[in-house]
Amino acid sequence: MKYFKLFNILGATFGAIIQAELLNTNYRVNQPIINVVDVKKQNGVVCLPDFFPLQDYDPMRPASIPSYSLPQYDENKYTGPNSELDSDILDLLNSLSLEEKAGQMIQLQVGLFIGCDGLINTTAIESMFDEWKIGSVLEATQNRRSRWNINSPQRFANFTNTIQNIALKKGSKIPIIYGLDSIRGANYVKGGTIFPAPVNIAATFNHIHAYNCGKISAKDSRSAGVHWVFSPLADVNMNKLWSRNFENFGEDPYLAGEMVYHSIKGLQGDYKNDRSKVAACVKHFIGYSSPINGQDRQISLIPWNFLLEYLVPPFKRAIDSGVATVMETYGQLNFQSTISSNKILGELLRIELGFNGTLISDWGEVNSQCYRYKTAFDIEDAVRMTLNNGSLDMSMTPDDVMFAKSTIDLVRSGKVDVKRIDESVGRILQLKKDLGLFASPYSDPKLIETVGSIQDVELSRDAARESLILLKNENNALPLSTSEKVLFVGAAFDSITYTTGAWSQHWQGPNEFEGDKVYDIYGESINSGVRNITGNDTNYIVGYDINGVRSHGYKKVVKAARTADKVVFILGEKPSTEEVGNIRTLRMAEDQYNLVKSVSDLTDTPIILILAQNRPFSLGELSSEASAIMNIGLPGPYSGIPIAEVLYGKFSPSGRQPYTYPKLDYQASVTYYTPQWNEFDPEFSFGQGIGYNNITYSEITVNSTELRPGRPISVSVTAKNHGIMVQNEPVLLFTAQLVRRFHVSELYRLRAFDKQFISPGASYTFNFILTAEEMSFINMDMNRVLSEGPVNITINAFNDNAKIAQVYLYEN
Ligand code: BGC
After folding, report:
1. Which residues form the Fibronectin type III-like domain (predicted)?
2. Is residue 688 within 8 Å of residue 657, measured between CB atoms?
3. Which of 8, 230, 285, 504 maximizes ligand 1 atoms within 8 Å of its Cβ, making it the mutation to test the pocket?
4. Who contacts 173 (Cβ-Cβ below 8 Å, separation ≥6)?
5. What are the Cα distances from residue 401, in Å, to 106, 128, 394, 456?
6. pTM greater than the 0.85 cutoff
């Protein structure tokens, strides 16, 4: 647990109360004296409490020019880390002292450089760089008791440039690389265009959105002097209780791999030449997404063949795309400590997957070996094992310099070979050179005016539009008409914060006290989207809070529903991630079920459910009581308009489920690639989703019914739009091997997808290539093998208009 981060949240609430007191002019003059033990002082001055939220909203905004263009670079060629260092980097490396080398290997969090008054503490920076020659800094100041709540790009850049300036004058005088969690756009930079959560990007089944998000995220980050983003996540969601489902691209290795690949292309592009790009960091290697009980950072027990078949492929795609850096994961895999594992970080990552770039630890993970997991006797032991067994290059320490100190001591005492240190420092220096940090270490002020441009915001809206998944629509309950009287219920209806989720403005999203205020002008709630589209005020009762607990107007809902034509319930989830977001059941608060049920029992008004969630909460009987259900995931700050548009029929939805939606807790770990004879009875399946149009499919044509290694076959199918609206139609191609000797085969596997606009009355023919090699799998001996047998090619499995063609798979 990042206690510092957690305290920040709690501190914000307490601090707000303290601040309210301070601002209150009606305080009693003779207040009792309360003894406060251990008040923090600096040079005799009493400090503000830690994490004091000054509510000092940065009034600066980027110019956000409506449109812009940046120089184009060739992004099609492979650009990634090389196995060899450039000769000037080698010379630099050889010129460094052991202390300077060790300093390059640590990354500190920015809170260490903020004074207790919330302002930048240059003395602290100078002395740290002088003594420890720090290589990297991470984090957003707003998560660290800074003066400004959310920094505008200008102010963020002032911060990073100040640190850079000191780094260039003190210690090793090597520029720092600044890292930040930009999970869905530059989500910590005020005005930076925030995109829908990755799970929504996956739901679009259109990788252009992953690319766009990466591209804009890179430029906005770079404007603030951030060179390295800890994104994308390539973890494949294996447990629906897990608090980080929304940060990933769903449960399918192929889909996740495609999205990861294109995210990295967008983030990095030609990063060795293009200064509007950043280094991406694919994370968390590996096995993080399968906590045995669904709780964050709990043990993962994963058969090695399963790991290679389902969890490694998205990381492989990341490396294929040239990802510059990788983050190892928290904890252990099969009881082996990941950070010190040669099998995981040596054999698998470096040798088998051929990763040449920089490997960073997750937060405090080296120290955690002794403090948390008890897999090391002390810090020096932890550092020694990390260096000698694993392949880590940089430690996100992030609060101390023990990693550097221990590294120096270990090399001096001969317990770690200096060649091992050179290997890592060489990679770090090369990364800095590739990003242009030696030539231009400071942020580019010209990029600032592009931040928050309408051009970017529209791309975020496009992604949100395509990510909305219509799962049920009986009696054409949707779309709504402007002449209907619609009642909207639920706290998430009127909140940008709740439809965006965590990793936005703050680690856990804005706190209760701040609410949407911190979004400033950047974004719109569903409520304002609906007002915008209908031109009318909305008929809205809060009914229940974001935790689903009854609140303002709960008792009025049934009465109001009687006089409405339709009731739309927005079911939300409080923004959270990591351990803060742990839950024990997928069941929602009872008040929420009871309210929807009462409307269903006591009125004839059709019910529409909108699910705004990090993860799939159980719908129970609400599923049959609702006439329409739409899963909107966490579509981000610019989704109010797209959601209103889809509700009022301005376009036809086109999202598809990127994960299996369980009915009950026992299905939390069920994926659609379960063995084919296994129970598969979820609420909604992977790939499920409909639009407003009736789309039919022709029979599938294949150019051969024999599928053999080295002889790909072509597969075509034609979709026809019988509706009256344009349909953006995703087509998903699955295979199912009906019989496979020895190793059970899965119900389905996704092999390809495509998406095209089809006008009313028009048809479109989708063409795919299928290879026998794709049908191979990892057996218990860890070999990739083919096993002959009949194979069904299924288009749009799990949807009513699915089509099947059969071929036969041969081993040679
Ligand atoms: C998370 C990482 C993140 C890091 C830095 C960790 O707790 O697991 O995903 O990049 O913190 O904030």
Report:
1. 729-799
2. yes
3. 230
4. 167
5. 7, 9, 12, 39
6. yes
Q: How far apart are CA 395 and CA 382, in angstroms?
A: 12
For the question of residue 362 being annotated catalytic, the response is: yes
Check 362, 462, 494, 545 and give the catalytic one.
362
In this prediction, residue 65 has a pLDDT band, given cuts at 50, 70 and 90, of very high
Distance 288 CA to ligand 1 centre (A): 12
CA of 377 to the centre of ligand 1 (A): 25
To which residue do tokens 């190892």 refer?
A: 328
User: Which amino acid would we find at residue 332?
Assistant: Q
Which position has the token pair 């200096």? 418
Residue 14 has pLDDT above 90, yes or no: no
- Ligand 1 centre from 144 Cα, in Å? 15
Domain boundaries defined on the chain: 87-450, 468-667, 695-809
Cβ burial of 115 (10 Å; 0-12, 13-18, 19+) is middle
The CATH architecture that domain 468-667 belongs to is 3-Layer(aba) Sandwich (3.40)
Amino acid, single-letter form, for residue 581? G
**Residues of the chain by 3-state class (helix, strand, coil), percent to 5:** 35, 20, 50
578 Cβ below 6 A of ligand 1: yes
Asked whether the predicted pLDDT for residue 156 surpasses 90, the reply is: yes
- Pocket test residue of 3, 228, 362 for ligand 1, highest count of atoms within 8 A of CB: 362
Q: What is the CATH code for 87-450?
A: 3.20.20.300
Q: How far apart are the first and last CA of the chain?
A: 51
| Distance (Å, whole) CA 209 – CA 462 | 8
Sequence-separated contacts (24+) of 547-553 with Cβ below 8 Å? 547/574, 547/589, 548/572, 548/588, 548/589, 548/591, 548/592, 549/589, 549/591, 550/591, 550/595, 551/491
Distance 363 CA to ligand 1 centre (A): 6
How far is residue 168's CA from residue 163's CA, in Å, rounded to a whole number?
A: 9
The least confident of 22-36, 399-413, 754-768 is: 22-36
Q: How confident is the model at residue 54 (pLDDT cuts 50, 70, 90)?
A: low
Which of 138, 96, 126, 115 lies closest to 397 in space, CA to CA?
138
Which of the four pLDDT bands, split at 50, 70 and 90, describes residue 17? very low
Lowest mean pLDDT among 18-22, 326-330, 436-440: 18-22
Q: Which tens digits make up the pLDDT trace of 762-803?
A: 999 999 999 999 999 999 999 999 999 999 999 999 999 999
How far is Cα 447 from Cα 223, in angstroms, rounded to an integer?
Answer: 5
Question: Which of 563, 501, 568 shows the shortest CA–CA distance to 529?
Answer: 568
Supply 730's token pair: 């995703």
Is the domain covering 695-809 a CATH 2.60.40.10 domain?
A: yes
pLDDT at 10: 39
